[in-house]
């Protein structure tokens, strides 16, 4: 029994030391002047899906490739969409011509022709009236039949009505198209322009562009696959901003604040420090992360902090363990300038 106890006591002491070390690794170590935190490099990831529906023609980026904002990443087969754009553009041109014709009104030649037709109708009416009067006089003296006189009177009346119709036609020619017809043509032009804009938008959505600078993490589809807004083509890791996700205990919470500068280091590059600053402190507490396995540690509450870090040479990777050193004796100032990482080598 004594031998067993002599073996168990060192093991218990070692287990307690390991538990203490792991607790410090998650919640930080503080000597009142400096605070050391331990966490992992984190960044945002975006699933990039194309907004159109169709078969993929080109995939222009590969895993691990750095891409810049606005860079073309993929294209769909767009022959059908280009044909729709051409048709919509032709409809717009045709309707523009209709509107221009209505707004310009009738041509002077048309107005002159209407005037000439009216003059001819007046001459015919005058001749028909004379003929009718002459036959009426002859009929009254029984020198012409009553039927001829009546026919001549009817022809004269018809010629007079043609004069009235010609006068109306000339007036309409001088006035031009009705305002209602012009408004209707303009509305049809707007509809055609909207159809063209929609066709152009659908054509533009047949291409996928990088929404921000980053690195292609996964290439999910390939040329020939059918794409849709529900099927991402790539996973993009946004490398700026990049931060270390760490946790601080309640006892140290009052010593840190957003804007405090920090130094970040990793085991992958011993002796190299990266410039950083506290950019976010969680407003609510959470239980110690589950990677801490002891029941005692699980019951402790911690606060997540994000230490934004400069990574000019792309050495920091997603999930990489990192150590953060924060001096607690510093002025309450945030990193200055638009680019706090400018000049970092």
Structure description:
This protein is an alpha+beta fold and 345 residues long. It has helices spanning 2-27, 79-104, 108-140, 146-175, 179-204, 250-253, 295-298, and strands at 29-30, 34-48, 54-59, 66-67, 72-76, 207-209, 214-219, 226-227, 234-249, 261-265, 274-281, 286-287, 301-309, 321-327. The chain starts with a helix and ends in an 18-residue tail after the last strand. The model is unreliable at 15-26 (pLDDT under 50).
Strand-pairing-aware structural class: alpha+beta
SSE string, helices as H and strands as E: HEEEEEHHHHEEEEHEEEHEE
Distance between the termini: 62 Å
Largest sheet: 6 strands, antiparallel, barrel
- Report the mean per-residue pLDDT as an integer: 80
Please list the strands of the largest sheet in the order they lie side by side: 2-9-13-11-10-14
Helix content: 40-55%
Q: Give me the oligomer status.
A: single chain
Determine the number of helices (DSSP H or I, runs of at least 4 residues): 7
- Beta-strand proportion: 25-35%
Number of domains: 3
- The overall strand count is 14
**Which regions contain 5 or more consecutive residues with pLDDT less than 50?**
15-26
Shape: rod-shaped
Q: Report Rg.
A: 44 Å
């Amino acid at each position: 029994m004594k031998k067993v106890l002599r073996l168990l006591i060192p093991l218990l002491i070692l287990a307690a030391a390991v538990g203490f070390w792991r607790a410090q690794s998650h919640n930080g170590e503080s000597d009142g002047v400096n605070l050391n935190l331990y966490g992992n490099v984190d960044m945002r990831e975006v699933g990039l899906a194309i907004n159109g529906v169709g078969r993929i023609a080109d995939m222009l980026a590969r895993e691990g490739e750095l891409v810049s904002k606005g860079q073309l990443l993929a294209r769909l087969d767009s022959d059908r969409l280009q044909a729709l754009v051409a048709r919509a553009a032709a409809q717009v041109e045709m309707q523009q011509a209709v509107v221009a014709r209505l707004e310009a009104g009738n041509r002077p030649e048309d107005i002159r022709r209407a005037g000439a037709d009216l003059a001819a109708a007046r001459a015919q009416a005058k001749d028909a009236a004379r003929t009718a009067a002459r036959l009426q006089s002859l009929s009254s003296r029984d020198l012409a039949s009553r039927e001829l006189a009546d026919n001549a009177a009817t022809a004269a009346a018809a010629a007079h009505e043609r004069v009235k119709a010609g006068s109306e036609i000339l007036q309409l020619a001088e006035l031009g198209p009705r305002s209602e017809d012009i408004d209707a043509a303009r509305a049809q032009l707007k509809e055609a322009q909207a159809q063209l804009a929609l066709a152009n938008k659908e054509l533009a959505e047949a291409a996928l562009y990088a929404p921000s600078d980053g690195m292609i993490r996964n290439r999910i589809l390939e040329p020939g696959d059918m794409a849709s807004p529900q099927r991402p083509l790539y996973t993009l890791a946004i490398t700026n901003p990049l931060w270390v996700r760490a946790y601080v205990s309640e006892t140290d919470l009052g010593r840190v604040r957003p804007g405090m500068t920090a130094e970040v280091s990793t085991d992958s590059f011993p002796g190299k420090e990266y410039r950083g600053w506290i950019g976010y402190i969680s407003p609510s507490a959470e239980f110690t992360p589950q990677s801490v396995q002891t029941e005692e540690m699980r019951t402790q509450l911690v606060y997540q902090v994000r230490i934004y870090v400069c990574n000019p040479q792309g050495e920091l990777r997603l999930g990489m363990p990192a150590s953060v050193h924060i001096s607690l004796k510093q002025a309450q100032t945030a990193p200055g300038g638009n680019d706090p990482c400018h000049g970092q080598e």
